[in-house]
Amino acid sequence: MSFTTKIFPFFLLFLLIHPLQAVPSIIPLNGSCTDKCGSIVLKYPFGSGFGCGHPTFSRFIKCTSGVLQFSTGTGIYTISTLDYTTNTLILTDPFMSTCSSMQNSGSFTLDRSTPFSIMKENIFVLLGCSTTSAVFDPKQDLCDTGSGSNVCRGLYSCKGVTGIGLEPNAPISTCCVYDPPVPIGSGYGLNLPRLQCSSYSSIYGFGGDEGDPMKWQYGISLQYNNSYYTDDSCKNCEDSGGICGFSGSDESFACICRNGVNTTINCFGRGYAWSGTWRHKIQTEMSIGGILFFWMMLFI
């Protein structure tokens, strides 16, 4: 018997045992993607977690226990509203001061790498600031002393100011409607310790009554870049009932179907599709076939 004849059975055995392991799973299963988080509907580029939506958005957005959250370097904030027609969302900071409740706040930053920017309608108010704070430096001109004074008077008329050690209708000399020297957008930072202020408030609307701070709309309004539909892949996926996501180290596009199968195109069966259930089943059957073949060869 020649060497080739002897080695051929073992080579065939190797192919039978490892045929599928040699082919990488291009798209891993991701059964955690949902099209809703609590009462908020999720559409691309937003997703419920890693591997869902657009990879750039998934670094900052996730759904935790039915609550849609936004993460920055200074904390995790709740997304209370998401509007796809205006490409905007509203963040709620639990430590931010409002008319009804004021408390010492943390800082807020918006990383430059985010696809979000703070809307110009947002009004940031610094409360309980030291008189030596840089915001009161006349050479810096960081406070809006025009209409901003009315905002400060409105907030300082609230009973909630007692939470930061002030009396209602206290002098507004420690209040500043912050007007930073650079345009508000990505990379925005509000460092309260550096600014020597106790708290901050953010107002994105007056609720139709600028004279009643109880009706003002408190929160941080962000606008997001919606130029992520670079081709028809996501639209085709959504039209087939799938959820757009990504996979692999290259974060390539993946259409996540409701039947547990992920595909590169859509859920109608076109494109590469790989089900984890079938993968393990086929691997098991092929491995058993290889073992049987091996025992047959022993008796030939």
TrEMBL record:
GO cellular component terms attached to this protein's record: membrane
InterPro entries documented for this protein: WAK_assoc_C (IPR032872), WAK_GUB (IPR025287)
Keyword Signal attached: yes
Residues in Wall-associated receptor kinase galacturonan-binding domain copies: 33-93
Catalytic activities: L-seryl-[protein] + ATP = O-phospho-L-seryl-[protein] + ADP + H(+); L-threonyl-[protein] + ATP = O-phospho-L-threonyl-[protein] + ADP + H(+)
Membrane topology: Single-pass membrane protein
Wall-associated receptor kinase C-terminal domain ranges (all copies): 222-259
UniProt cross-references to Pfam families, sorted A to Z: GUB_WAK_bind, WAK_assoc
Compartments reported by the entry: Membrane
EC number: 2.7.11.1
Position of the signal peptide: 1-22
Sorted UniProt keywords: Glycoprotein, Signal
GO MF, any single term: protein serine/threonine kinase activity
Presence of the UniProt keyword Glycoprotein in the record: yes
PANTHER family, A to Z: WALL-ASSOCIATED RECEPTOR KINASE 3-LIKE, WALL-ASSOCIATED RECEPTOR KINASE CARBOXY-TERMINAL PROTEIN-RELATED
Name this protein carries in UniProt: non-specific serine/threonine protein kinase
